[in-house]
Amino acid sequence: MGSMPFYMLIITVTSFTTITVLVSATDNPALEIKPDLPVIIQQAEKSLSLTCRPRVSEPNLISQLEWRDSVGRLIANTDQNALIHVAKLTNETGILLVFPNPQNYLDGIYKCKAFYGSTLLETRVRVVTIDGNPVTPQIFELFNITASIESDTKIICKANGRPTPKVLFKKLNKADLFQIGSQPFDDRILIENINNNAKGETYGILTIRNLSRADDGLYECIADNEIGKAFRIGHITVEFPPVFNNNDNVNEVWTWQNNPVKLTCVAESIPNSTIKWRYNSNELDRDNPSLRIEGYGPKSHLIVTPGSENKLDAHYECVAMNRLGQNHKMFSLKSADPPCSISQVKVNTVTPTTIKFEIVRQQLFSEMPLKAFICKYRRIDQTSDFAKNITWNVNASYIINNLEPQKTYHFTFAAVNDVGIGSWSGPNLHFTMPRRAVPAEPIILVTLGGFANVSIHEQVIVSSYADRYELRWNVSNDNGHPLDYYIIRYCETHWINGEWKDSESKCCSEIIEPTFQSYEMKELQPDTTYNIELRAHNALGASTTAQMRVKTIVEAFSGSNSSTNSFNLLILFVYAVFY
Predict the structure, then answer these.
(1) Burial 260-277 (b: 16+ CB within 10 A, else e)
(2) Overall fold of domain 443-551
(3) CATH 3.30.930.10 for the 135-241 domain, yes or no
(4) What is the pLDDT of residues 106-156, one digit of tens each?
(5) How far is 143 from 234, CA to CA, in rounded Å?
(6) Which of 142, 230, 426, 460 could form a cystine bridge with 223, CB 3.0-4.6 A?
(7) pTM for the complete prediction?
C-alpha cells in the first residue's frame, strides 16, 4: 500500500531550542468528480458518464478506487449493456460511472471512494433524471383558509417543475422552515409532500390540528428543486368567539353631580361580534333618554345620565355575540362623593427644617380611589392668610422641607379624588421643630449585599480598578445651617489580630465643596484595602462619620515592564526536506 510522503518542518525560535515536526506533503488530498456539480440533472434516455479522479501528489498510492450506490452497494459491473456500469480510465488513475439509459428509479446519491495510503477519501454526487428539459418550479395553486378555533385545518400548495420540486412552508413571522413530517417543537403541525413524478407535480400539505389564535397569520409556500425556487404567500384566518382582551380592566365606573358617564365595550372576535346591553340583568329600555347606545359592535358605548335620584346606579352588562359563541363584561355604576376626612396622621421623622408624615388610611377610603393628599401648614404665630399648601401623590413620601428650626407649626390634611377635595375636619397637628444642629451623617451610595450575615473582616467593597475608586454619596440634611464643605479621609488599612487598623502614615484628607456628591480617589495602590471616612460640615460642626472599606484589584499584567517581552518575537526558519 506504500507510505505517505512527508516533509520535515524545522522551526528555530529565538532564545530557544529547535523544534522538528513532520507534516504531510499533500495539503488536502481528495477525490473529484466531473462534471463538478453536487447535483447532476440528466434527461431520461440520454447517456451520462461521471468521472472520479484522485487529486493527490502521489497517484500510485491510490488503492480500492470504486463507486457505490445510494444504499452503499459496490458497483462492479463492467458490462457496457448494463443499466449502470463502471470502467477504469486507461492512461490515468480514475474510474467512470456510466448510465447508458438513465431512468428515474436509478436516481440517488452515488459515492466515489478510495484509500490514499491509509487515508480514506470519499466524495459524492446526486443524480436526478427528468423527462424533458429542466424547469424552474412554479406554484400554480394556493388558497387562503378560514377555520374555527380548536378545529383542524389544511392549507395545500400545488407546484410543478423538472425535477419534481419539494414543497415546504414557513410562518412569515418566523425564521425557520417547517420540516417534512411532525414538528419537534409543536406536534400539532404536520408537513406532507405528495409527488407525481410523471407530471413533475408536488402537493405540499400543511396540517394544523387544534387551531389556536396564534396560528392565525401569513404562511409562505416554497417550491424548491435543483433548478431554482418559487414562493407564494397564503393566509390562515382563525375564527374565535368574543373576548375582551383589549378592554381596560375598569369594572367600577363612578359618576357624580348628575354627570353622564360612558361605559365602553370592545369585543375582539372573528367574525365581528354584535353587542347588546343589559341593565340589572334585564334588556335595556332603548326608549329611556337617560340610557343611550352608540354602536352595536364590535365596539359599543353606553352613555348613562344618572339624574338627581341616582336611580340608574346599577349593574350593566355588555353582551358580545357571534356564531361561535358569546361573552359578557360587567360594569358597576356608582355615585361618588368627595373623600371623607382623614382620621389619623403621625409624625414619622423630623430634622430642624424637615418633617415627614405617615397618613393612616381608614376603611372609608376603600370606595372611589384617591388621587392625592393635601396639607395646609403655617407657623402658629401667623394667620391663615400665610398658610402654604403642598400636594402629594397617594403613594409618595409625605415630606415638607424648608421649615424654620425651633418654630411651632400648624398642619391640617385633606384627601382628594376625582370628585374633589374632601373635608379638612381631620386631625390638626401642632409640632415644634427641633433646634439647629450639625448636619446629618452623609449616606454613602454603595451596594453592601448580604453584609449583615458575614464577618466584619469580609465587609469590603471591591473597586473595579487597581489605582482609583469613585466615592459617591447623597447630600446631607443641613439641619438648619447650610453645608460649607465635606471632609474625606482615606487610609490604607489592614486586618490585624481580629480588627481593622489604619496605617496613619498612609492617610490622605480632602475638603470638598458642599455642592459635590462624588470624589475620585486616585493614585491608590493595587490589591490594597482602604478605610474611607466621610463627614458633612456646617457652622455648628461636623456630622457623625460615614464609613466604608474598599479594596483595589490586582494590577493587570503589563508587557512593557516584563522581561518576557523577549518571548514575543519568534523568527521561524522553515526548511523543506523531502523524504
Answers:
(1) ebebbbbbbbbeebbbbb
(2) Immunoglobulin-like (2.60.40)
(3) no
(4) 888 999 999 999 999 999 998 888 777 888 999 999 999 999 999 999 999
(5) 6
(6) 230
(7) 0.58
